[in-house]
Design goal:
By secondary structure, the chain is mainly alpha-helical. It has one domain: Orthogonal Bundle (Arc Repressor Mutant, subunit A), CATH 1.10.10. The chain is 70% helix and 0% strand. The protein has 4 helices and no strands.
Length: 80
Amino acid sequence: MTKREIAGRYTLEAWQRLQARVDKIRSNSKATLRFEKLPTLEELETKYINAVMQVCNGNKVHASHILGITDRTLRNRLDK
């Protein structure tokens, strides 16, 4: 399995977990739905970038190619 496939699999698994949470909320039969704390887009981005960096053993050039962003953009997002 390539590093790109591993990163894609991580994304799929994260999406499936999020979808399961959304389905759980939708299936709630009470009049007022109880929403669980969903992660922000920034939190998801940070977790995903960190996961890709881990797969790439910290190699920013490879990670940026997998993420589809430039090396400079990756550096800026890591500096946040």
